[in-house]
Amino acid sequence: MFNIETVKQIKIAYIGGGSKGWARSLMSDLALDERMSGMVALYDLDFEAALQNEAIGNLSGNGKWRYEAVSSLKKALSGADVTVISILPGTLDHMETDVHLPEQFGIYQSVGDTVGPGGIIRGLRAAPMFADIACAIRDYAPDSWVMNYTNPMSVCTRMLYKVFPDIKAFGCCHEVFGTQKLLCEMVKERLGLNVKQREDIKVNVLGINHFTWVTEASFRHIDLVPVFQEFAAQYAETGYEPSGESWRDSVFHSAHRVAFHLFETYGAIPAAGDRHLAEFFPAFYLKDPEKWKFHLTSVGYRKQESLRRKKETDHMIKQKQGAALKASGEEGVNMIAALLGLGDLMTNVNLPNEGQAANLPMGAIVETNAYITRNRVQPIFSGTLPKRLEMLANRHISNQEAVAEAGFTQDDSLAFQAFINDPLITLDRADAERLFREMLSCNQIGAR
């Protein structure tokens, strides 16, 4: 028997339930949490992958959670208290086109899932998928809280609201956490103080996903922005790497040189990794990633990782092994608990702008802090971006709105306008249109 004061029986619908990354993290975090129990309905277009996660999930933890692969969105969503969306819009072959076909035209991308030619085409693929998901949530789980982890975050979350305006959805991203961890390292090095956990660094977050900025930061009574100014100046040329670490250790690591340069340029602390930040500007950083000490993550690497995870999954099934019980560092489970009234939480989320980002367009999906409590996600007023950052953010917001509309209506003309408006598209119009058409063709998307 569970203590009813600490444990609530709930249903989680997991769309993308065959995931070998995010789903396993959720399994681990749910097993480690003592406040909740219930069932997780795993829906995936790859039903076999969902069945594998059913087996792994039911071997994880102490049996508080029951996992079940289901064959339809209706079965997954019916009765759901919380819906998690974590899908790959398309395939890794599609993503390979997103990232590497533009290289034939001299355009390089470090991630290719948010902005740039890759992010735009991925958004066009994702928009109709998220329209279908929104319709299903409206029909089968209209009161469910919806947590989206899928990129392009802004386009996908915007589509949910576009199709179902009363949806209770928000986008979740961990990039700000990395900035908080960097500030912890800075406090230790420059002030000689240990920060027990990244949450002890208080930040005012403002912007759009992966182009997010910290305009205020503190630890206890200490204003950290002036400290960061000195920190960034010290490591602007060399980059910052804690002792024993190297940006070359992982394709996802960097030495923060892009972030330091952007702080010196704009006066706000960038709150995303260098790989994401670099793509929001003309190819200033992307033309020489070695100089700036970050990676262009190839889709070939992602495919190798996918094969490794498939082998790992087969081994886990054969050995009847559950997910490793190790905290992921994500906040999804704490968010769910807060929504259930089991502990309030202040964190960063992506929501339609109701004024929390004062100088960004109303209704656009913006990322700011929010207070999560029982059955409520309340965005926190975060002030205004510096004017020069506002101008850059608005350009991308305009594109994201156009991509959501074009993906939903299959309007190639509108999609192309967003495509050529992206800062990474520096081609003449004829070459830009040729690249656009080739990418659409490879993805089998476009006007019907």
UniProtKB/TrEMBL annotation:
Instruction: Quote the Pfam families the UniProt record gives.
Output: Glyco_hydro_4, Glyco_hydro_4C
Name the coenzymes or cofactors required: NAD(+); Mn(2+)
**Keyword match Hydrolase:** yes
MF annotations from Gene Ontology: hydrolase activity, acting on glycosyl bonds
* Top-level taxon in the UniProt lineage: Bacteria
Q: Which UniProt keywords apply?
A: Carbohydrate metabolism, Glycosidase, Hydrolase, Manganese, Metal-binding, NAD
Q: Which Gene3D superfamilies match?
A: AglA-like glucosidase (3.90.1820.10)
Q: Which residues form the Glycosyl hydrolase family 4 C-terminal domain?
A: 205-425
Cofactor info, note text: Binds 1 NAD(+) per subunit.
User: Which protein family is named in the record?
Assistant: Belongs to the glycosyl hydrolase 4 family.
Q: What is this protein called?
A: Glycosidase
Species name: Bacillus atrophaeus (strain 1942)
